[in-house]
Amino acid sequence: MKDERLKLGTRLLIGGIAGFVGTMAMTSAMQRLHRRLPEEERYPLTPREIVDSVADAAEVDLPDETAKDLTTIGHFAYGAAMGALISVMNPTPSKKSGALAGTAVWLASYMGWIPALNVLEPATQHPKRRNFLMIGVHIVWGAATASAMRELVAARETILAAGPDKDVPGRGTPELPTRD
Predict the structure, then answer these.
(1) Domain residue spans in the chain?
(2) 26-67 per-position pLDDT tens digit
């Protein structure tokens, strides 16, 4: 089956899983690059700042552990949602087009809806090194998400496709005789 014939639900599933996987790669890169920032710029990255800003706007005092959990959930859910959106358009993007999609997600988020909703200042107001970090990790996210999408599409045609179930009792290879 060619990717253009994948049903919408399948594309959403593939993209959501791939976006989640891409978010793990992104999070790993964020953690490593954050350590390299100058000390005065090593405050929480934007996923946590978003949670804190929304909680402040709602006048909710979140315990730190709850805020960490909400940040993790929001970060991975958003990555999965963006992966699903990209997969609707193209479930087998190249790493290059995935990286471009990651950059587009950063631009639409940090220069678009996030400042428009007054959640954070636009990225033009953030320190340059933090912006470079966030753009870089969005490129990582996009490339990893694209790779995961292609792997999932390929897996559906090979290891997840229909075929003889030889390891299911009664369907395949006869059971080995037992010794007395």
Answers:
(1) 3-156
(2) 999 999 999 999 999 999 999 999 999 999 999 999 999 999
Cα torsion for 56, 60, 65, 66, to the nearest 10°? -110
What pTM did the predictor assign?
0.91
Residues 50 and 168: their CA atoms lie apart, in Å, by 49
**pLDDT tens figures, 107-139:** 999 999 999 999 999 999 999 999 999 999 999
How far apart are alpha carbons 137 and 83 in whole angstroms? 15
Tokens of 114: 């996030």
DSSP code per residue over 12-71: HHHHHHHHHHHHHHHHHHHHHHHTTS-GGG-SPPHHHHHHHHHHHHTT----HHHHHHHH
